[in-house]
Amino acid sequence: MQLAGQSNMADDFSLTRVPTHARLPMWEVLLVRIGALTALSQFMLGAALGYGMTFWQAFWATMLGSVILEVVSLFLGIAGAREGMSTSLLARWTGFGKYGSSIIGAVVAISLIGWFGVQNSVFAKGLDEALGGVLGFPLAAALTGFLVTVIVIYGFKWLSWTAKIAVPGFLVVVAYGIYEVLRHHSVSELISSPAPGPALSLGMAATMVAGGFMVGAVITPDMSRYCRNGKDVLWMTVIGTIVGELGVNMIAVLMAHAVKSSDVVDIIVQTAGWLGAAVVIFATVKINDINLYSSSLGITNLLDSMFRIKMNRGWVTLVIGTIGTLLSIMGILDQFVSFLTLLGVWIPPIAGIMVVDYFVLKRSRNVLDESRKRGELPDSCENINPITLIAWALGFTAGYLFDIGIPSLNSLLVSGIVYYAGMKVFKPTHTKEQDDNIIRTNNVG
After folding, report:
1. Total structural domains within the chain
2. Is residue 386 part of a domain?
3. What is the 8-class DSSP label of residue 428?
4. For this UniProt entry, which segments traverse the membrane (predicted)?
5. I want to staple 52 with a disulfide (CB 3.0 to 4.6 A). Which of 64, 200, 349, 431 is the partner?
């Protein structure tokens, strides 16, 4: 029998734990993580901040958003590494249950398919412009979408190889862009210059930073399940955040101030030329393959938990890659900023609930620990937890309706607090004896 992850269309342990022998060195997972952050979308975000804020305003907005992202990434990443599970699979035993995890799978998949459309639009636009408009945007988008889909079909190993090519190239172009900016402009002048465009508030900007990669923070277990221990997760998330969020954002802010524009392609062309633009646009493939990869894991979990269909992740990738490509052709890029803001309040409640359940309440720790020793999934899980759904809804409401503070942080905190209080008041934590009884009952049934 062929192991998952070894077929031509790699299943990549989508519905099982990643075994010890399949774990990877920290630097290899780190490269994939950095690739998710050092992409054109991050430049788009940094340029948007730089166009609407001063350098220091953008710095503090990035810091606030990055701290939120790092905390979420670290906790969920450690849980993913310990259990060897993807986010949507882990959610079954961290508050959401069998059917609740299906909802997570659907929400994350829809969000990432949207991101896939955004990134693919940028890639296709840059490719079409570089070729003088010969292809036309629809054909260029179809070709670039197909390219990324093929890469993702073959699993995490192909993601790693893509990162080894794209990440160094991206960093070289960024370094050259910095050199060009410093050669023609005074750094102190750029740092002290006013925002060239309409003003952005600190709360909105921090939410754009946190919301822009919040899905990436929540799906950290999709990558960290390949880490060997919690220390690897710590270095992977910290270095990724420093290089990808803080580093790329602030460079993009300076460049936006230098050329007085938020048009990313225009900024890169002016600082690094068309060759640099081509390399940076190609690096978009690196984050887009992660979007599609995690989306395929979410859909695979949904099909299994809701319909008991164990579909190969490769085939799922083919279908959703086609959908994402069509979305990019339809012009989802136009909704970029509003899309970021919406993600900033929809996704954080998931993290708040999962972290509280796994690290504070530890409701399913006994069954997870027992099954981990066997290298298997637990034999049982609850179907759905109404308290989870209420906490999720209230977290979203808090982030969406209240403008005080940072909406994405508000939604994360409210969901976690409501879930903790609700579970303490209405539903006692499982004891080991209760968990053992559930397992025995399921085995007998």
Report:
1. 1
2. no
3. P
4. 30-52, 58-78, 99-118, 130-154, 161-179, 199-221, 233-255, 267-285, 315-333, 339-361, 382-402, 408-426
5. 200
Answer yes or no: is 119 within a domain.
Answer: yes
Number of neighbours of residue 49 by Cβ within 10 angstroms: 30
In this structure, what DSSP letter does residue 260 have? T
Whether 132 maps to a domain, the answer reads: yes
CB 395 within 8 A of CB 415: yes
Task: Kindly state whether residue 370 falls inside one of the protein's structural domains.
Answer: no
Q: How far is CA 407 from CA 167, 200, 373, in A?
A: 31, 15, 40
| Cα 159 from Cα 318, distance rounded (Å) | 16
C-alpha–C-alpha distance, residues 13 and 312, integer Å? 10
CATH number at residue 183: 1.10.4160.10
Q: Encode 52-73: b = buried (16+ Cβ within 10 Å), e = exposed.
A: bbbbebbbebbbbbbbbbbbbb
The residue range of the domain holding 243 is 20-337
pLDDT of residue 162: 83
**pLDDT per residue as tens digits for the range 351-370:** 999 999 999 999 999 999 99
- Is the pTM higher than 0.90? no
Q: Which two tokens stand for residue 331?
A: 């012009």
Query: Which residue type is seen at 164?
Result: K
